[in-house]
């Protein structure tokens, strides 16, 4: 089991990892999700003792990585950046790593065979393609038959066959009771592979829950409504909770004056509008893809938490579910004019959140 | 935690043989570093180049000296008579030692430039034992190769010089100088390794080492009076190479072993700094 507690890392003025706390359980694949620059690689480097955190701890079965006596027998790691001397053959690369852990040469051959590099074992790693380099990295990770695997973007550079192979490999290892912690910036990839998700944005935790729960929450849909009487319709929709809908309805106003309604079907909205004698110009169900939902959710999440805390006295701090993290005025990207700020968060006040790009916070990479 | 966790905790490994076997770890790191060293073509080639270059230059310079002997300055002739061994070795080593400097730097900086350092640090997360193992492997290699070269150069060049300055292994200080030449090269390699670890970038580190070896000495001599003389005498390679001379020079402030001791101190301080920095820095 990997346990991360209150982990923080700054590079100069930039905070790459911001008080992260989560744990990774054995026997399943835990996906580590976040946009590029969210701090995934940094978090993994901190767990592996490559970087020193400013605060917090990261342990593997209760032991810091740096205190492991034979670390490669306990933890296998694939880093995003290559960690192979270009002038050394694949065989010798694995051999020197095996020797450092007291592993027999047989393990080197087994690992090479497992990733399908036996034929090029004596070739210089510098001449390997991206996919072959990735396979060599995976061979190094599996060398010590470790209990814990930490894989940073393992499908990078792999062909479709390779992607399928690594997916099945991870599933088999998880089924064998191993702890698998695998990062990706692609929601679609994680949806097919992971059992559990840890989602971060700008170094802070956004979600730590099962994939099913994540999908259930982030794929709910909204309805775009255009009307000449928006405030009247908004009041009407929010006043009466829809039948069978426990959580009520939220209405947000987009910049062009249209309404984004969540928690209600287009049919219900149309019926309500007719009953209230409100004219409708457009009534379009919007369905965000998982990918879009994820991107919207991770964008500007830190600012959102700060605002919410000041408004509600600390409720919904980092560590809450997705519902806390999704800006209430969330709308599919298509509903917002390009370059415009996301729609106002609350219907009563026209608070505009700037769309802050999340890239660039991972300075050390 | 709503996801399924099938029969997981049972497989968590308890009581691996890893704990409490610290003594076994260092020989493993030595094996690792030896494999790293021998499995990269560039290191093997640089060592070969060093051997051929140094032997060739020693023979060439000695042959030139003997053929020009009658035209030489009497003070130069005197210097040859006083320390024939040091002159034989010095002529080839002046250039040959640069190969050792480059190799010492590259042994660590190539790990940084290729990213191998991350694999190394993952395998040896306490880091300083890895540096110690690397230093020991490299020291043994440079010492052995250095001795081959110094004895080789002597046995090739001494017969050429014989007609002008007879010198044999049994002469006073000769054996010490030949052994000392290997020790000097070994220490020079470690010196370069330490600077490479501190600077991490190949070009910068090589520049740094060359500055110590080739640039600082003439600069120090420009300092006025005895200050310049003292600074010059205590520079790492100026002090260190005294051990590779069979007889002390007329102006030497330090004896052969004192000089080597000064070089060892420089190297030790830099290696400790390198270990400290390696442990503290992000890899």
From TrEMBL, chain A:
Residues 329-345 have a biased composition (Pro residues). PROSITE patterns: ABC_TRANSPORTER_2. InterPro entries: AAA+_ATPase, ABC_transporter-like_ATP-bd, P-loop_NTPase. Pfam families: ABC_tran (PF00005). Residues 313-322 have a biased composition (Gly residues). SUPFAM superfamilies: P-loop containing nucleoside triphosphate hydrolases (SSF52540). Keywords: ATP-binding, Nucleotide-binding, Transport. SMART domains: AAA. Residues 311-365 are annotated as: Disordered. GO terms for molecular function: ATP binding. CDD domains: ABC_BcrA_bacitracin_resist. Residues 2-227 form the ABC transporter domain. Belongs to the ABC transporter superfamily. This is ABC transporter ATP-binding protein. It comes from Catenulispora pinistramenti.
From TrEMBL, chain B:
Pfam families: ABC2_membrane_4. The keyword Iron does not apply. The chain crosses the membrane at residues 44-64, 88-108, 135-161, 173-195, 202-223, 256-278. It comes from the Bacteria. Keywords: Membrane, Transmembrane, Transmembrane helix. This is ABC transporter permease subunit. It comes from Catenulispora pinistramenti.
């Amino acid at each position: 089991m990997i346990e991360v507690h209150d982990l923080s890392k700054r590079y100069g003025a930039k905070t790459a990892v911001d008080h992260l706390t989560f744990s990774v359980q054995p026997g399943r694949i835990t996906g580590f999700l976040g946009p590029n620059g969210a701090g995934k690689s940094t978090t993994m480097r901190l767990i592996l003792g490559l970087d020193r955190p400013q605060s917090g701890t990261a342990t593997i079965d209760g032991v810091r990585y740096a205190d492991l006596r034979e670390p490669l027998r306990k933890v296998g790691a694939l880093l995003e950046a290559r960690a192979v001397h270009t002038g050394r053959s694949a065989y010798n690369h694995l051999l020197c790593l095996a020797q450092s852990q007291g592993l027999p040469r047989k393990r080197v051959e087994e690992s090479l065979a497992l990733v399908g590099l036996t034929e090029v074992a004596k070739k210089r790693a510098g001449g390997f393609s991206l996919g072959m380099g990735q396979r060599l990295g995976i061979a190094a990770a599996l060398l010590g038959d470790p209990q814990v695997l930490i894989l940073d973007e393992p499908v990078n550079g792999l062909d479709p066959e390779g992607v399928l192979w690594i997916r099945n490999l991870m599933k088999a290892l998880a089924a064998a009771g191993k702890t698998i912690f695998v990062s990706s910036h692609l929601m679609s990839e994680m949806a097919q592979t992971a059992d559990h998700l840890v989602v971060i944005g700008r170094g802070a935790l956004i979600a730590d829950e099962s994939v099913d729960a994540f999908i259930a929450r982030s794929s709910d849909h909204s309805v775009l409504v255009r009307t000449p009487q928006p405030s009247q319709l908004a009041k009407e929709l929010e006043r009466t909770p829809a039948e069978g809908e426990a959580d009520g309805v939220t209405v947000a106003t987009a910049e062009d004056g249209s309404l984004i309604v969540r928690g209600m079907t287009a049919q219900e909205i149309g019926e309500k509008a007719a009953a209230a004698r409100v004219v409708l110009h457009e009534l379009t169900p919007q369905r965000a893809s998982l990918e879009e939902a994820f991107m919207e959710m991770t964008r500007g999440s830190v600012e959102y938490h700060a605002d919410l805390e000041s408004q509600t006295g600390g409720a919904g701090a980092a560590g809450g579910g997705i519902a806390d993290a999704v800006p209430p005025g969330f709308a599919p990207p298509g509903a917002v004019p390009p370059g415009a700020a996301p729609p106002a968060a609350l219907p009563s006040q026209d608070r505009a959140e700037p769309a802050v790009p999340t890239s660039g916070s991972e300075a050390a990479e | 935690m709503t996801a399924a966790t099938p029969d997981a905790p049972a497989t968590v490994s308890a009581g691996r043989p890893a704990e409490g076997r610290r003594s076994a770890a260092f020989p493993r790191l030595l094996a690792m570093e030896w494999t790293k060293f021998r499995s990269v073509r560039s290191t093997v080639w640089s060592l070969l180049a060093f051997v051929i270059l140094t032997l060739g230059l020693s023979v060439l310079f000695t042959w030139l000296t003997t053929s020009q002997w009658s035209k030489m300055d009497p003070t130069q002739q005197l210097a040859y008579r006083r320390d024939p061994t040091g002159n034989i070795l010095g002529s080839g080593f002046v250039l040959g030692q640069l190969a050792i400097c480059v190799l010492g730097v590259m042994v660590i900086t190539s790990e940084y430039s290729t990213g191998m350092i991350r694999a190394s640090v993952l395998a040896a997360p306490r880091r300083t034992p890895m540096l110690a193992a690397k230093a020991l492997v490299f020291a043994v290699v440079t010492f052995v190769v250095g001795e081959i070269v110094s004895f080789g150069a002597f046995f090739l060049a001494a017969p050429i010089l014989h007609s002008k300055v007879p010198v044999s292994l049994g002469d006073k200080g000769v054996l010490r100088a030949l052994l000392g030449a290997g020790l000097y090269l070994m220490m020079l390699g470690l010196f370069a390794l330490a600077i490479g670890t501190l600077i991490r970038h190949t070009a910068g580190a090589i520049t740094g080492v060359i500055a110590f070896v080739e640039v600082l000495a003439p600069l120090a001599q420009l300092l006025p009076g005895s200050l310049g003389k003292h600074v010059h005498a205590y520079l790492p390679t100026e002090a260190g190479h005294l051990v590779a001379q069979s007889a002390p020079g007329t102006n030497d402030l330090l004896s052969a072993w004192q000089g080597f001791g000064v070089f060892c101190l420089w190297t030790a301080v830099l290696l400790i700094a390198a270990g400290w920095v390696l442990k503290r820095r992000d890899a």
